[in-house]
Structure formats: structure tokens, C-alpha cells
Amino acid sequence: MDTNQKPKTKLTAAQWISRTAFCFGNVGHSAFYGVMSTYFIIFVTSGMFDGLSKHVANKLIALITGLIVGVRILELIVDPIIGNIVDNTKTRWGKFKPWIFWGNIVSGALMLVLFTGIFGLAKVNWVLFAILFVIIFLTFDIFYSFSDVSYWGMVPALSEDSNERGIYTSLGAFAGTIGWNGLTIIVVPIVTYFTYLATGQHKEGPIGWFAFAAIITALAILSALAVCFGTKEKHNIIRNSAKQKTTIRDVFSAIFHNDQILWPALAYLLYSCAYVITNGVLFYLYKFVIGKPGQFWIVGVIATIIGFCTSPLFPILNKFIPRKWLFIMGQVCMVLAYIIFIFCRSNIFMMDLGLVLFNINYAQLVTVLTFTDAIEYGQLKNGQRNEAVVLAVRPMIDKLTGAISNGLVGYIAVAAGMTGAATAADMTAKDIRTFDSMAFYIPMILAILSIIVFLLKVHLSEEKHAEIVEELKDKLAKGEIKASDDDQSLVPSQGTELLAPADGELINLQKVVNEDNTVGFPGKGFAIAPSDGRIYAPFDGVIKFTFSTKHAFEIVSDNGLEVIVHVGLGTVNMRGAGFNVHYTDGQKVHAGELLTEFDRDLIRQNGYKDTVVTFMVRPNHVTIDQQITDGSKVHHGDKVMTVNSKE
Question: Which 8-state DSSP code applies to residue 244?
Fold first, then answer.
């Protein structure tokens, strides 16, 4: 039996809306990034300085290229600080949505200003143009970073389950494929069409580039609104138990003292450099090397089709293939693609095959999921849950590699004469060799290095993450970490009656046999060896949260007692298989109401214990007024103990 198989349960309307909204959110978000990371520099080299002499234009192109690289390297320091600001944000809309909304509004407006060439200022005063360009581009990048960090930072806030996070990340990546690669299909037609409307000329002119930027900006804002209105942060006990306020020192500590952030980050950096460099010069390949710019749309079509196939397949493949091997498989395909690009360029069929292999890649998906799981890994090690900070690492890397790509494109454009009205006929053999080394040889080496790093240094697997979540749960049971920012005792002095949530035989927590055959469960509470597969409410209260794996939930009584009912030991690894819940988070329930059904046989077939453990979230704040009679038979609804606040 496959322990990773999810039960076939019907998604609620809220779940459909959340997944759809998050998915659509990355259509505009990814397209927006694609415009600035790839097509802005093409606009700079081909249209921004129309009307200036080629000598002056080339100097300004080199200046802008250098400024972009410098600004984005500077933001390697700024981005973790942005993540810290997001992490410390508290509003009625959560900590992510305000930044997603305003980040898109401000960065969108500034991108439009940049696509006007700052209203043609370079033709009047190039020194003032350079100063304003740095200010505007830096501000643009900061606000885009707020949006990007917040979007991907929402993943661990939407679920604590690695598999569910995989679904959200896959949906985001799927939509990102549409947004990113869709640009490749529409950029030339849109820019040419709007240039023709304005000038009557069939070329890529400045007005066409501005129209293109305006369309993508509108799409990005619509996508941001979808995320803001369609998703909801999940405030569960694991998230709330972390230290919420972090300092700048905490920010860099969270990154540099977490090896399962650093090594995946290095592997992703190597991959991203390779991918973005090659992707950034493919337009030049078709326009100046192959001499067929009109066929550039093929690149986008192939990438989009492959994205449609690979992203939805990720959660399915990940049931049978660990993330590490999916990462490596994608990098091997990438290396094969480079070999084809280098040696089979004259064969159209082989070039298309190379584009297929180039886009069969799970690097971003695997990296984002590894980072999200590293959040609990870091929380276990140092007590800090730096969601946005950790998730800021990936966009920080994207910015760095985007800067490298911009710098390379600018270098090639100037060095090989690929500016202004130049054509493929103007290219020399030396120009082609320079292009090949930068576009294919160096990236191929980087792809190979990323395989080596991920294979040898990344150890945070899906199974390891499940163990970490369980260990955090044990710490909560022991009272070693508190459940929320409010550290006061919530249990009133008159006490709360705690009823048996299942039929079976009572077990003292100190006698519970764990999944690793050790004896003793931490904390205060009791366990039951169940006689059937049903769980009932132990008192009147509200379901505060449910683990996405459905094996445990927190319920809070009407007078404030916080209790976790944990079904089975080791069952987190089943990822929800065999569990069926009859409530929704936030629902008011009554004592004795059926909450969960579970398959005892399936649990035992997978080698786990079916023991039902009920324990206090705040053991240091409560006392028990009677001893449990070990071995007694109980029925659900029978009184097991009375819990009082500690005086």
C-alpha cells in the first residue's frame, strides 16, 4: 500500500477557490517578472534610444546594463530585510496580502515609467536620466520584491503538510509557465501591432513596447487581486507557536544557520543562472544567429506546452519519486538540451527537441518546497518561523540571476553589434562563438554543478519533514514551546470535563508505545487503544485547526481549554490516506459529535500504531484532579478527567 496516496475526498468550495486564486495569481506575477528580467533589456537595446546616434546609444545601453546589475546585487542584502518586514506584519488581512496588493500597484506604475524611457529624458540630459533610472529601478525592484516574497511566502501559511504545499506550489508553477512562456508567444505580435498602429511601420518600436508593458501590468494587478480575495492564511498551532517578532539579526541567522536553506539555494542558483542566461538570449539566437525572428514564438509554444504537462504531473510523480530525483532528472534533461543546441542547430526537429528537454525541469518546484519544509526545520532548531524571510531567498536568487542575464544580454548586444537595425547578415564567426560560449557552454557547466550540489548536500526529504512536524508536536505536548503569543493561562478555575473521544481502552501517557517502539508520550493527557475507527468531540468547543494530513486536530473548549487529538503514531507519514473528517476548521462542535473516521487496518498495514492520544497544548498551565485508571474500558463521551487552571 502506498503511504503517500491521498484519500479521494471531495474538495470544498473554499479549497477550490483558494487553489484557483493562488494559481491565477502567478499568471500575472510571473509575466510581470518576465517582462523586467528578459524583455526590458531587449527594449533597452532595440527601442529605448531611437533617435540617438549608435555611439551614444551603445554607451547608454552599457550604462543601464551596469546599473541594473549593480542595483540587483545591492538587493541581495535588501531582500532578506524585506522578508523580515513581511514576517513582522500584522493586519486584519494577514501579513502577506497588503504587500501583494501594494507591491503590484507601485511596481506596475514604475515599470510603465521605465518603458517610456523616463519620458525620453536620455535625449535631453543623460546624467539626470542615469540618476533617476537608479532611483526608479531600485524602488520598482523593492516593491516587486514585497509582492514576490509575499506570494510565495503564503505557501507555508496555506498548509503545514508537505504534500498540500506541493499542490499549491505546482499550481503556482503551472500558472507561472503560462505567464512566463506566454510572453514569448505574444511579445513580437503585440509590440509590432501597436507600433504599426502608431507609426504605420511593421517593426518593434518604443510605443509597441510601452503597450506590451501596460497589458502585462494590468494582468499582474488582476492576478494580485485574485490572491488577495481568494486565499486565506491558516493559523495553526505550529505557526502560532513560533517566535513571531524577529530582528534583522534573526533574519540573517535564519538563513545562514539553516543548512537546508543554504545548500538548496546554491543548487538553485546554479540552475537559475543556466536557465535565465539561456532564456534571455534565445530571442537573439533566432534574430541574429538563425536569422528568423518571426519563428521566436515557437520557443514560447513549446515551453508552454511542456509546462502544461510537467507542472500538473509533479504531485503525481512525487508520490513515487522523491523530490531530489525529480530535481536531478530535470537537470539531466537540461544538459542534454545544451548538447543539442550546440551540435544540432541546423536541424529544426532536433532544435525543437532541445527546447522540449530544456523545459522539462522541476528545479523551481523542488526548491520552493524544500525551502517551505526548511521553515519547520529552522523552527525546530532555533524556535524561529521566518516564513517570508526563508521564501525571500528564492526570489533573491532570481534577481541575481536576472541581473546576470541582463548584463550578459547587454554585453552580447554591444560586443556583437546586435543593436538597433542590425541583422543576422552582420554577424561574424567570432560573434557566433561568443554567443555560443555565453548561451550554452557556460550554462551547461552550471547545470552539471547543480546536480552535484543537490545530490550530495540536500537532505531534507518529505519523510524527514514529517518527522520534524511530529517533533514540534512533541515539544508542544511537553510545554517546551508555547502555542501562541498570548502566554496567559486560558483554563478557568472551575475546570473543564474532558471526555473520551473514542471507544477503547485507556492508556496512561507514560505507557504509550510510540512508532519507534520507545515508551512514553510527553505532556499531560491520556491515550486510548481504539476499538473502532471513529473520533468524537471531547467537549463543546471550536475546531481551531486540522493538520492537512488529517491525523490530528486542535479543539478549544468554550472556556478556553486547548487540546490536540492525535490519531495514530507515525500516521503523519500517510499524508491523509485513510482519514475522513466531518467538519471544517472554525466550526462549532458539541461533545460527542462525530468528527473523524479513520481506517485502523490501513494504519497498521503501513506499520504504524492506531493509538489515539489526547493532550493539552499548555501542559504547564493546567492541573489534572484525578488519576487515569490504566486499562479501563471507555466509550466515547465517558468522563476521563477534569482539567483545572494552575493557581
Answer: -
φ and ψ at residue 542, rounded to 5 degrees: -125, 135
On average, the pLDDT of the chain sits at 80
Catalytic residue, chosen from 465, 566, 621, 636, is 566
Contact criterion met (CB below 8 Å) for 504 and 634: yes
Count of residues making up the chain: 647
The pLDDT value recorded for residue 243 is: 46
Residue 161 cell numbers, joined:
503538510
The torsion of the CA quartet 218, 219, 221, 222, rounded to 10 degrees, works out to: 120
User: What is the pLDDT at residue 445?
Assistant: 94
402: its cell numbers: 536576472
Single-letter amino acid, residue 499: L
Question: What residues does 536 pair with on adjacent strands?
Answer: 594
* 202 is an active site residue: no
In terms of Cβ atoms closer than 10 Å to its own Cβ (0-12, 13-18, 19+), residue 497 is middle
Q: State the DSSP string of 486-499.
A: --S--S-TT-EEEE
Listed in sequence order, the residues at least 6 apart from 446 whose beta carbon sits closer than 8 Å to its beta carbon are 270, 271, 273, 274
Residue 504's DSSP bridge partners are: 530, 634
pLDDT of 510 > 50? The answer is yes
Among residues 473, 454, 494, which one has the least CA distance to residue 644? 494
**Amino acid at position 513, single letter:** V
List b or e across 509-531, with b for residues whose CB sees 16 or more CB atoms inside 10 angstroms: beebbbbeeeeebbbbbbbbbbe
Which residue, 307, 462, 236, 453, is CA-closest to 370? 462
- Residue ranges of the alpha helices (H) in 318-441? 323-343, 348-359, 363-382, 387-415, 429-436
Contacts of 564 (CB under 8 A, 6+ apart): 237, 473, 476, 477, 552, 553, 554, 555, 614, 615, 617
For 157-185, how does the pLDDT look when each residue is reduced to its tens digit (9 = 90+)? 776 665 677 778 778 878 887 887 788 88
Express each pLDDT in 466-500 by its tens digit.
777 777 777 766 666 654 444 444 444 467 889 99
Cα 561 to Cα 623: distance, rounded to the nearest angstrom: 12
| Torsion angles phi and psi, residue 525, rounded to 5 | 155, -145
| Bridge partners, 569 (sequence order) | 609
Burial code (b: 16+ CB inside 10 Å, e: under 16) for 11-36 equals eeeeeebbbebbbbbbbbbbbbbbbb
Output 14-21 pairs: Cβ under 8 A, ≥24 positions apart: 14/232, 14/584, 17/230, 18/158, 18/230, 18/231, 18/232, 19/167, 19/168, 19/171, 20/230, 21/226, 21/227, 21/229, 21/230, 21/231
Residue 567 has φ and ψ, to the nearest 5°, of -95, 110
Separation CA 593–CA 608 (nearest Å): 26
Q: Are residues 272 and 398 in contact, defined by beta-carbon separation less than 8 angstroms?
A: yes
Q: Which is it for the CA torsion 413, 419, 422, 423, positive or negative?
A: positive
- Give, rounded to a whole angstrom, the gap between the first and last alpha carbons of the chain: 50
Separation of alpha carbons 585 and 548, rounded Å:
11
